[in-house]
Write a structure and sequence with these properties.
The complex is a heterodimer of chains A (about 110) and B (about 110). With about 110 residues, chain A is an all-beta fold. Chain A has strands at about 5, 10-15, 20-25, 30-35, 45-50, 55, 65, 75-80, 85-95, 100, 105-110. In chain A, a hairpin with a 6-residue loop joins β4 (about 30-35) and β5 (about 45-50). Chain A starts with a strand and ends with a strand. The model of chain A has no long low-confidence stretch (mean pLDDT about 95). Chain B is an all-beta fold. In chain B, strands 2, 4, 5, 9, 10 and 11 form a six-stranded mixed sheet that branches. A five-stranded antiparallel sheet of chain B has the order 1-3-8-7-6, with no helix packed on it. Chain B is globular, with a radius of gyration of 13 Å. The interface between A and B is medium-sized, with 22 and 24 residues.
């Protein structure tokens, strides 16, 4: 059974139109992460939560925001997607030294 | 700040060969080191996770080792097959900041 679930798997959005990607977990892990992975590149950490404490990476653009309303859910909001934001977005969780990744959401910007 | 490096960046070998992929990390304060496989356009598939207290993990033809003191991990693939062709990524989960930091990956091509 999938433990970190990302929806949708594929998302097409228009240039400049806000879009939200979602992630849920059944593991009750206290840390959740969002990564951006562009073609042929390593996943890049955008931000992570330790419980409700939000940790933003210094080079994450302001266009990217996140919400974690409870332990199980975490959202990635892209306020005004540009063509350069087309990528795979990966959600992950960790606790007690174990880490799990979702299957990712592939975002296309048209 | 943790940095993870993978060598080589790309590798092509004939089918049947045994091979080793290398991963190094600068900060040894890690919870674990994880190896992933990624096929083109797909998400990550976890292969092996080695906790910081462990030295190695095995799954089928795969064996991963961890030497925290030297900041190194290796992924050994025995009797390689064309289906093993993919990008292999290693990632370290840091104790100081709970961040999972990835290497840039090794693109592996197994020649039939």
């Amino acid at each position: 059974d999938a433990m970190v679930i990302q929806n949708p798997r594929y998302q097409v959005t228009q240039f400049g139109k806000p879009v939200t990607l979602s992630c849920s977990q059944t593991l009750n892990h206290n840390v959740m992460y969002w990564y951006q992975q562009k073609s042929s590149q390593a996943p890049k950490l955008l931000f992570h939560y330790y419980d409700k404490d939000f940790n933003n990476e210094a080079d994450t653009p302001d266009n990217f925001q996140s919400r974690r309303p409870n332990t199980s859910f975490c959202f990635l909001d892209i306020r005004s997607p540009g063509l350069g934001d087309a990528a795979m977005y990966l959600c992950a969780t960790s606790s007690d030294g174990f880490a799990f990744f979702g299957q990712g959401t592939r975002l296309t910007v048209v | 700040k943790q940095e993870v490096t993978q060598i080589p960046a790309a590798l092509s070998v004939p089918e049947g060969e045994n091979l080793v992929l290398n991963c190094s990390f600068t900060d040894s304060a890690i919870y674990n080191l994880q190896w992933f496989r990624q096929d083109p356009g797909k998400g990550l598939t976890s292969l092996l996770l080695i906790q910081s207290s462990q030295r190695e993990q095995t799954s089928g033809r795969l064996n991963a080792s961890l030497d925290k003191s030297s900041g190194r991990s290796t992924l050994y693939i025995a009797a390689s097959q064309p289906g093993d062709s993919a990008t292999y990524l290693c990632a370290a989960l840091g104790m100081r900041d709970d961040k999972i930091i990835f290497g840039k990956g090794t693109r592996l091509h197994i020649l039939p």
